[in-house]
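Worked example 2:
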Amino acid sequence: MVETLRLSWIQQQAVKLFRLNLPYSASTGSLDDAQNIGWVPLTAPTRAIPAHQQDRMFQVSSYLYRANPVAFRIIELIPAFVVGDGVIIKAADPEVNTVIQAFWNDRRNKFRRFLGERVKTLSLYGEALYPAYVNPVNGAVTLGAMFPGIIKQVLPNPRNTHEVDAVVTKAGQGLKVNENGQLIEVPVPEQILHIIKQDVEVKSDTFGMDAGDAFYFSINTPMDILRGISDLYTIADWLDIFDQFLFNRAERQAALSSYLWDIKLEGMSQVEVDQWLSSQILQESKQRSGRMFAHNEKVTRAAIAPNLQADDAVNDARAFMSMIWSGTGFSSQAFGDPGQTGRAVGNDMNEWVYKTLSARQLLWRNNLLDIFDFVIDQAIIHGEIKEHKVNRYIEIFMPKISMRDLQRLTQALRNFGGFVGQAVGANNILELKPEDKDRLRSVMHNLLDHVDAPSSPDMLKDVVTGLEIPTPVHSTANGNSGR
């Protein structure tokens, strides 16, 4: 069942003539089918977050990061493990390596210093917008950074809804210092930034190369959603509930520490009770713990503490936190809670944490490679790299996430070394052919690749030599990534 967009006759003719890109969602018909123009399936509504809710997400995430200690730790943990120990970049081609190192160490880009901040910002807001500025003389690339809240709309490729074509920024008012040194407001017009990607226009001067105005990266996005989602979005309510829960418990503890005096005055009328209380106000204000209070048999005085049914809240707190742990992919140990499991079970549970952080590390490795492709293309266009068919293979050495894995791998290397020694020594029983030795070297370098990233080129060389397979154009090894 479908519904039609209300178009005037002129609009309908314009659509048919120019094939305008109309809003659509999971249309089962061909976009070139004139019968389907302007129709949207009722059964496939868009699942993207509305624009006002996206802006609200930025505000909530920013507030939680500043005010909620659990949210702060979640956001800080991700860059600490993903790039916390630093990232090393190395290109196979000397010319490419010179260009990449100049970009990486540029004093305005400051990737060595601010890569962790970029990882943190993407995790906090769910998306990042980096306008690229190219030096017209040497093609050097400088990346800026724009708050994603300035994004008004993300426009998809009409033939591939998961590919971003352009980003529309909001119009507004900005501040500027004029020639007299005064701060004045200036209007900021709406802007369209074309996302950097491969140019497929055959007649274009940059055909086959990356071209555009800005990079747009997003996380937590299925194939049918373009706008990024913050890592705090799904757990924001639970973070707030847990925060209120602890605050209420603190107030309850303050109430439990309070008490009041119940004084019984036998045989007195209300007027006499009021007169007695008036005469005692000054004396009562001076009463402290340990002081004496004298009275006759008609006066009874007792301290009463409120009974607030203050049951143990540990189970409630753990239930709230389990929702937060589930939403982040972290374990309870990441938040300082040793949990109720033994060390062996806890280490197995941390394997999920390792996979979660490894996936985010891979995402950032691919983001960096996309940026390097643009940097290389600009260097080629401006003559800094002479050869068009350059070797684009780049090694990105990311920090190891788990030290426990290094201990396992070292033990595996020790065992493998013993096995190789026994195999070589058993010449009278086992004859090793050259290709067998190449395979053994490949396994050794594969293990070394997990411990020491620079061994991966040797591993790839051994695999190619031993198995006689062609060298891949794009190669990815555990702990490294290259193009």
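The mean pLDDT is 74. The chain has twelve helices and 18 strands.
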